[in-house]
Amino acid sequence: MKLRFTPEDEAFRHDIACWLARKLCGPFAQLKYRGGPGDEHSFVAERKVWEQHMARDNWLCVGWPKAWGGRELSISQQVIFHEEYAKAGGPGLLGHIGAGLAGPTLIAFGSDSQKQRFLPGILTGEQYWCQGYSEPGAGSDLANVRTKAELDNKSGQWRINGQKIWTSLAHEADWCFMLVRTEPGSRGHKGLSFLLVPMKQAGVTIRPIQQITATSEFNEVFFDDAVTDSNNLVGQPGQGWHIAMVLLGFERGVSTLGQQMQFANELKDIIAIAKSNGAAQDASIRQRIAKAWSGLTIMRHHALRHAQRTTRW
Ligand SMILES: Cc1cc2nc3c(=O)[nH]c(=O)nc-3n(C[C@H](O)[C@H](O)[C@H](O)COP(=O)(O)OP(=O)(O)OC[C@H]3O[C@@H](n4cnc5c(N)ncnc54)[C@H](O)[C@@H]3O)c2cc1C
């Protein structure tokens, strides 16, 4: 696969680079290169203000259709956007799960009222999302999800019980999109549904998982009789696996590119440090750097390949 940039794409590159140079300064200069992996807790409030600033010029949901408030950029222009954002030191985006995953999935599968209710908060950078897929017994084997949701016909609400794990940014999220088992006794990828659940309620407990960096991007999230309205089911009951897989297609494509480009910035810093302090003379360190570079290059090609296959609406 080869990505070529047209003269129009290069003109777009110039526009976004100029916008970033003009805006990522003054009070926002302190956010440059901040908020990435291992630095998740830095400048959280300020980064939200930055995201809302981006939103005012419509730079948060660049791939969404214009009909739903996005810029409807082509894949190559989305790649350019992420490249320039990383090059300018754009801070880690707390809203990327909403903009890159929840939003595109709702556009593809949500009802009109779900789109009208949830998309504006993502576009303006005011509503944050997290992803409730993984469980202690459902990681690589995701179809082993055990968290249950039962529809209470009297209250008209889904009642959710179970545990999710590795839930990035759950502590900042207003909403969680979840893969849950709605058909009692079902197994594997059958009987699963895709549910939108408010995080700020008594039945949801968030416990941070501390990483070696001493920060905690991830959380364990416990659902004990948590509730959500019946109209927060996306698609049909039992369609959860299909919707969840389409969402993962978005995750593996353009949405991942931004993160990889931040990793590329970090690697650039490591190489500069290794050159300046003499560590680059050590053959084993050179090997490790080369391995990291190869890994990043492979990740980038995978993401570009997936991005081209991703569902378009
Ligand atoms: C940065 C990051 C952010 C994440 N954020 C979220 C999030 O927000 N929400 C969410 O739901 N999840 C999230 N995850 C979880 C992630 O997407 C995976 O589901 C999870 O990491 C894999 O599950 P596990 O940790 O239980 O590993 P396991 O499934 O236990 O796998 C452990 C190891 O065993 C190997 N393995 C497993 N099964 C087999 C097999 N049958 N044969 C051979 N080898 C096997 C795997 O390849 C792996 O090396 C995140 C992960 C990362 C790294």
Description:
It contains eight helices and eight strands. The mean pLDDT is 93. The protein is globular. 42% of the residues lie in helices and 16% in strands. Strands 1-4-5-8 form a four-stranded mixed sheet. It has a four-stranded antiparallel sheet with strand order 2-3-7-6, with no helix packed on it. With 313 residues, the chain is of the alpha+beta class. It folds into three domains: 7-123, Orthogonal Bundle (Butyryl-Coa Dehydrogenase, subunit A, domain 1), CATH 1.10.540.10; 129-241, Beta Barrel (Butyryl-CoA Dehydrogenase, subunit A, domain 2), CATH 2.40.110; 247-309. Flavin-adenine dinucleotide (FAD) binds at residues 130-134, 139-140, 166-168.
In short:
This protein has 313 residues and is of the alpha+beta class.
> From the alpha-carbon coordinates, what is the Rg to the nearest angstrom?
20 Å
Q: What fold name goes in the CATH topology slot of the largest domain?
A: Butyryl-Coa Dehydrogenase, subunit A, domain 1
| End-to-end separation | 22 Å
Our count of domains comes out at 3
Q: Specify the CATH architecture of the largest domain.
A: Orthogonal Bundle
DSSP strand count: 8
Q: How would you state the average pLDDT, rounded?
A: 93
List the total number of helices: 8
- Helix-strand topology string: HHHHHEEEEEEEEHHH
Q: Structural class from helices and strands? A: alpha+beta
Largest sheet properties:
4 strands, mixed
CATH class of the largest domain: Mainly Alpha
- Major β-sheet strand ordering: 1-4-5-8
